[in-house]
Amino acid sequence: MTSGGGDSSGSAANASLLQAMGTRRRVPELVDEGGRGSDFSDGGAAVRTPSSSSSYRRRMVWHFCWLFWVCWGLLTVFFLFLLLKYTSMTFYEVVTIRKQNDFLIPPPSDESSFNDNAAEVNNQSLEVWMKPSSGDYHKCSHRLSKETRRGAETNGYIIVRSNGGLNQMKTGISDMVAIAKIMNATLVYPYLDHTSYWADSSEFKDIFDSNHFEEVLKDDIQIAESLPPEYASVKPLVKPPVSWSKPSYYKEIIVPLLKKHKVIQFTQSDSRLANNNLPKAIQRLRCRAMYDALRFTDKIQTLGMKLVDRLRSDNKPYVALHLRYEKDMLAFTGCTHNLTAEDAQKLTVMRKNANHWKEKDIDGEARRLQGGCPLTPREAAIFLEAIGFPSDTKIYIVAGEIYGNLGISTFQSTYPNVISHSNLATKEELEPLKNHQNQLAALDYIIAVESDVFVYTYDGNMAKAVQGHRRFERFRKTIVPDNRNLVNLIDKMDNGMLSWEEFSSTIKSLHANRTGAPYRRVPGEFPKQEENFYANPLPGCICNKQQGLT
User: Fold this and answer.
1) What's the rounded Cα separation, in Å, for the pair 397 and 421?
2) Tell me: the pLDDT tens digits for 176-229?
3) Which of 215, 291, 335, 457 has the fewest CB atoms within 10 Å, counting from its CB?
């Protein structure tokens, strides 16, 4: 009995002891990376089971794969963004990035003169289309409030007989606007030249938008379409103004005559005002007249811009080349290089029969070597090729008929993609301008000003007017040829003294800084020898952001 009772008591004690020991040996549950509980035993030593270890590895592989594909996706999106951004850039932006990465030029701070569609150009020729930086300069021809005309009082009426071709008349009329301001005179609509080489019968209102002309200048001068009835029968005082005159000439000499006679007729209009040392207000007025008030008629303006769009319809830029190898210019300058004896003789006869051309006996070859002749079509082609324009470049010829039995053929042998208004416009489009050379010249003027690059072969009136306008429009690229060095280098190459590589390298070096970038016009010893105001209106109506009005 006792024995049985003792065993029962011992068993209970043992059970209690074991239960207490079991409680002490239990280790709290740990949570692994997967979030599930793991039991540990054997004195608390953590041992992962085979099934839980395999699960952990699978989860790590899954996380790595997920992270890899996310990174790959982000990189793909980033590169697609860069690709789309680059291919949507304008032609000019692509060129700018290339140039800046090569540390060749500072980044331009102004808008591009290029059409946004001009993006499909061979990468090797990008540099030739690059416009110069305008820096801090911008156009400023605005009128200050203190310069506004007040009152209707006038000292009299000025009748202007413009002389020369379109651009000579255009700059002359701009001067006459400024002279009318200086004299406090009323300007009658100018008469255009009908007796020049072109014999164009167009009147002022046939070429220029007369309403716009008056509207732009209404706060500067008084303008009349014709003399009022009380002066219609008055015989005007006929007088050619002195060339390159200062305001004092008009104020002290001409104004007293105007007050006395009430009507003065100026028989010459070109170069009747000095280039330099004029009041800033007068210089800005000249620019308002030249670049704004003398806008062409809607008929000419609309067709001109339509032809510009047509030139750019294939998304490529174009060069406007003023190839002034025309009969009248060659006769005037006496330049006969590469012409036949018969063609040269015709020019001599024309020059000697022109009463208004003072110079009759000219050594054409000596003048050419001094840089005083228009480039021949062959010389123009060699020049463009040396500069770097590829043979498939679109060349718009800003000129009339090319003189000589070879015509334009020597140029086309290098640049076959030659265009002019005669093959760019339809016959129906040109019909209203037929037999009106000044109106056709106005069409060419628009296309030249809007071109991606303008190149001229002789520094005549159109070259001056167009390059000045392009400077005014934030320095669009204009290549100014160094004719004297150019023709001498061509002769050396033709005589085997220079290789093509040497010639091209020298030409590029000579013209690196002759692309229409800003520089200030400097007065010369003689007005005829200094730079023309309308070829470079800085200073005058181009301002520097740091210095204000120039």
Assistant:
1) 8
2) 999 999 999 999 999 999 988 778 999 999 999 999 999 999 999 999 999 999
3) 215
pLDDT in the model for residue 424? 97
Q: Give residue 263's identity as a one-letter amino acid code.
A: V
Distance CA 354, CA 225 (A): 32
Give the per-residue pLDDT at 207: 98
Find the Cα–Cα–Cα–Cα dihedral 58, 60, 65, 66, rounded to 10°: 110
Strand partners, 266: 160, 239
Cα angle vertex 154, ends 151, 157, to 5°? Answer: 145
Residues 306 and 288: their CA atoms lie apart, in Å, by: 25
Q: Are strands 37-38 and 30-31 parallel, antiparallel or unpaired?
A: antiparallel
Look up residue 466 and give its two tokens: 């167009």
Question: How far apart are alpha carbons 187 and 419 in whole angstroms?
Answer: 39
Q: Report CA-CA distances (Å) from 264 to 169, 187, 234, 239, 322.
A: 18, 10, 10, 7, 36
The vertex-201 CA angle with 198 and 202, nearest 5°, equals: 105
The number of beta carbons lying within 10 Å of the beta carbon of residue 515 is: 18
| Residue tagged 């506004």 (tokens) | 148
Task: Report the length, in residues, of the chain.
Answer: 550
Answer yes or no: are the C-beta atoms of 176 and 272 closer than 8 Å: yes
Supply the pTM of this predicted model: 0.78
Give 30-63 as a DSSP string.
EE-TTS-EE--BTTTB----HHHHHHHHHHHHHH
Residues 472, 291: contact at Cβ < 8 Å? yes
Q: Are 219 and 235 in contact (CB under 8 A)?
A: no
User: Using 50, 70 and 90 to split pLDDT, how confident is the model at 99?
Assistant: very low
Question: Scanning the structure block, which residue is given the tokens 């400077």?
Answer: 471
Query: Can you tell me whether residue 396 is helix, strand or coil?
Result: strand
CA distance 18 to 72: 60
Q: Which residues of 367-388 are buried (b: 16+ CB within 10 A; e: fewer)?
A: bbbebbbbbbbbbbbbbbbbbb
- Using left for φ > 0, alpha for ψ between -120 and 50, and beta otherwise, residue 388 falls in left
Tokens of 81: 């963004």
Per-residue pLDDT tens over the stretch 319-345: 999 999 999 999 999 999 999 999 999
d(CA 371, CA 486): 8
157: closest CA among 265, 273, 268?
Answer: 265
The conformation of residue 191, written as its DSSP 8-state character, comes to B
Question: If we measure between CA atoms, which residue out of 161, 266, 264 comes closest to residue 203?
Answer: 161
Q: Which of 156, 151, 94, 160 is nearest to 127 (CA)?
A: 94
Backbone angles phi, psi at 29, to 5 degrees: -65, 140
**Structure tokens that stand for 11 in this block:** 């068993």
CA angle, residues 203, 206, 207, in degrees to nearest 5: 100
pLDDT digits (tens, 9 = 90+) for 368-417: 999 999 999 999 999 999 999 999 999 999 998 999 989 999 999 999 99
Q: How far apart are CA 176 and CA 161, in angstroms?
A: 10
